[in-house]
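Hi L., both proteins are below.
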Amino acid sequence: MATEDKNRATAAAILPLVGGAANVGSIAHCMTRLRLGLHDRSLVDEEALKAVPAVLGVVEDDTYQIVLGPGTVARVTPEFERLVEEERALAPPAVHTSGELAAQGAAIRAQQKARNATPFKLFLRRIANIFVPLIPALIGCGIIAGLNGLLVNLGRLTSVTPALAAMASGFMALIAVFVGYNTAKEFGGTPILGGAVAAIIVFPGVANIDAFGQTLSPGQGGVLGALGAAVLAVYVEKWCRRWVPEALDVLVTPTLTVLISGLVTIFGLMYVAGEVSSAIGTFADWLLSTGGAGAGFLLGGFFLPLVMLGLHQALIPIHTTLIEQQGFTVLLPILAMAGAGQVGAAAAVYLRLPRNESIRRTIRSALPAGLLGVGEPLIYGVSLPLGRPFVTACVGGAFGGGFVGLFNQLGDSVGSTAIGPSGWALFPLLDGNHGLGPTIAVYAGGLLVGYVAGFVATYFFGFSKALLDEFDVPREPAPSTVAAPGTATPGRTPDDPAPGDSPTKQPAGV
C-alpha cells in the first residue's frame, strides 16, 4: 500500500505541473519515460517538474517525455491515468472550449515538430515504430534459445529441448509477417494486408520459383524484404482506394494489393533484399575481423551521442537482419559498452561531488538500472546536465567497445540473440562461435574495462575547477514532493542545458 501511495503521490505531483488533465491529450509510457501529448506546452512548469524527486529529467519531442526510470514509470502511469480521468469527470476540459488557447497550443506543437521533425529523423522514427514492438518477443525467444542451448550442451532434459527449440524459433521463422503488419500500420495502410504480402517471403512454396536465374529460398530477403513489400502494399492500396469504385472496393482493393505487391515481391524484392541482407552480414563480419578493436572503439564511443540524436534507430533493422542470418548480432555487445562507460562515469561523479547530496542521491537510485543496461536515468539525471562527464562516459564506452572488438578480431565472436537489453541483463542472451563460457568472459571483460575507463576518465578529466566550485557544494534533495515554481532541478542550476532530442522509444542498451 505504501508503494501505491508513493506512485499516486508522484502522479499527483506531475499532473498540475503539466497543465492539469485538461491539457493532457494522450498518455503512454515506454521502458523509462511517461510520454504525454499536451495541448499547450506553455502551461508546463518545467523547472518545478524537474524538481519532483521521482523525475530524472524531461525530453521535448513529438510528445512531452518525463523520465522516471524503469519500473517506476510502469507503476506511475496507471495512477496518472486514473487521476486524469477523475479530474476530467469533475471538470470539463476547458482547453478544448477556447479556440484561442487551442490555436496557441497547436502553434507550439507545430514549432516543436518543426524543430525535431527532419525528414531523416522522421524516417528513423518510423523504422523504430515498426521494430520496437517486436523487442519483447525477441527477448523472450532469445532467452529460451539460450536456455535450450545450455541444456543441449549439458545433455539434460533431452525430452524438453525440442519443445524449447520450437518456442525459440517459431517467432523468428515468422518475424517477416510481423514486420509487414507493423510497417503497413505505420505507413497508413491496412495492417493485415501488409502482413499478408510479407508472408509470401517465408512461405515454403517460394522454393519452387525461379527469379533472376536462381531459385528463391523461404525467408530470402528477411525483414528488409518484408519492410519493402509492406511499404509497396500500402502505396498500391492507397492508389486503389482513389480509383476503385466504392461498390467494388471491398473486393478489388485487397485483391490488387496482394496481387501486385506479391508479384513484385517474388520477382524483385526478395532477390534484391536478399543481396542487401547478405551484404550487411558480410560487412559486419569483415569490419570486426579486420578492424575489430578500432571499429569497437568508435562504435562504443559514439553510441551515446547517436542515442541523443535518435540516429541509433537506424541500427535496429541491421541488428534484426544479423539475428536472422547468423543467430545473433555482433554489434549489440559492443554498443552495450556505452552503458558501462556511463556507469563508471557516474561512480566517479559520486566520489568527486561528496557534498552534493542531491546528485549523489540520484546516482544511488539510478545506478542499479544502469548496471542492468538502462542508462537514461544516469544520462538525464547526472552526466548530461554536468556536460563534461557525458564526454568521459563516452570514453569509457569506447575502451569497452574496443576490448570486445579486439576479441572479435581475434576470432572470438561475441553476439546477442536479441536486441533490447544490455549491461548485466544481456548475459542470458549472449551467444558466440566458441561456446558460452568464452563469450561470457569476453563480454564481462568488456564491461569491466568500460567501468574502469569511464571512472578514470571522469575522475581525472571530467571536472574543471569551475564545475567543481559550482556543484561540489551542499545541496539537499527537494524536501517536498513538489518544489515551488522556478526551483532548479536537484543537482542542476537553472542555466544548465536541458536534455537533447531523443528517440520515441529506444531499445535499452545504453
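That was the first. Here is the second:
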Amino acid sequence: MRSPMVRAVRAEWTKLRSVRSTPLALIALLALSLLLTVASANGSQFGYGGPKKYDASSFVHRTATGDGTFTVRVAAQKNSAGWAKAGLLLKDGTASGSSYAALMVTPEHGVRMMADGKHELTGSGGTDAPRWLRLVRSGDRVTGYESADGRAWTKVGTLTVAGLPDAAEAGLFVTSPMDGKEERSGPGDLRMHPEATLGRAVFDHVAFPAQSGSGGWQQTDIKQTVKKGEMADPVAPPKPFREHDGTFTITGSGDLGGLGMGGVGQLGGQPDLVKMALDDGIQIATIAVIALGVLFITSEYKTGTVRTTFTASPRRGRVLAAKALVLGATVFVVGLVASVAEFLVARPALRDNGFAPPLFPELSLTDPATMRAIVGSAAFLALAAVLSLGVGALLRRAVPAVVLMIVTFVVLPIVAQTTSIGFSDFVGRATPTAGLAVQQTRRLLDTVITPWAGFGVLCLYVVVVLGAARWRLTGRDV
C-alpha cells in the first residue's frame, strides 16, 4: 500500500504533465537558453594587442663558452609585480627575441624555468626569495635546479634550446612587467589602469664556470621588439647595476615569456569563462520556469479544481510539498540538460572568439568547479520554479505572481546594473538572484558573494516563502 505522500506526488506529477503550459515552458527553457547562449558567446570577443613573446630585462652578463654549471642565490626580490622575475639567464647574445634558457624566482608564483617563450616548467609553488638557483648546460640541453639552502637541490626540469650557441651570454637578469589595479567604475564595469613597474633583486654566491669571460660584467638593458600593430607596454628605466664583495643589486623593467606563460597577457586576471558560458542562457530560462511554477498552482485556483485536490488530500501542506517536489525535480532534470548543452555550445564559440589556449585554459566538463556551476545552474532553475510556486500559492492569481517574480529575477538586476555599485552589490547578495553565484568558478573583483553563500540565500527565500504559503493554505478553506 502506497503512503499518502507517494500518492500525492503521483497525483501532482499527473497534473503537471496534463497542464498545457508545461511542455511549452520546458521547450521555451531549452530554446531560450541555447539561443541566448549562442548569441552571447559569439558576441564575447577577446582581442590581445600585445606581443606574443616578451624578451625585455636588465641583463648583467659574461660570455660563457661550452658546457658548465651556473649557480646564484637570489637573496632578495622586490615585489614590484606578482610576475616580476629575477634569476639566471643563458642567451644567444643580447638581442630581444634571441634564443634563451632562464631560471627565475617570482614574488607570488614561485620558481619557473623557461626557454624561448615557448616552454615553461614550474618549480616550487609559492616560494619567493631568498632562493638558490642553478642552471647546468650540456650542449643544447639546459637543466634547472633550485634549493632553499644551497646544499639540497631539487630538479625543476630540462629544456632543449636548439638556438643556443656554444659561446652564449650567461648572467643575472631582472624584469618586472607592467601592473595595474582593477577598479569598479560602476556596476558591472571593471577598468584597469596599467603602470610600468621597476623590479629590483639582490644576488650573491655567484658561481660561474672559470671560462665565463675575463673582461668583467656588463649590463645590457634588453628592450622589447614591438612589431607593427602591436601595443608597447610601459616600462620604467632601470638603474646601473651595483656590485660589492660579490653581491649584485640589479633593477629591471619589462617581461620575459610567451603568451599564456610567465604571466604574459594576464594583467587583470582571467575572466570566469564558465560563468560567461552559462549566465545569460540561465537568466533568460528563469522566465520560463517562473511561468511554469506560478501556473502550476494558480491554474487550479482559476478553474476551481483546487477544491477537488484538497478534498482528495486534506493535508494541504502535503499537497504543497508534493507540488514542490514534482516541479523542482522536473525543472532540475530539464535544466541540467539545458546547462550541459549551453556549456558545450558556448565552449567552441568562446574559443573561436579569442578565449583560447595558451592564454586561456581549455574548459573541461569534468572539472569540479565547472561541474558545480553546471549542476548548480540546474538547481537554481529548480529553486526559482519552486519559489514561484510558493508565491503563486500566496497570491493565488497568476498575473501578479508572475509580475512579482519577473521583477525580482529580471527587472531588479537590470536596474541594479544601471544605478550604483552599492545597490548592485545588495541585489547580488541579498535577493534570490544571489543564487546565480553558484555559477562562479573564479573570484573576481566584482564578486559580491561566494557560490555556496549565494545559493544558500536563494534556499532561504524558498524555505520562507513555502512556509508562508503552507500557513496560508492551512489557514483558509480554499
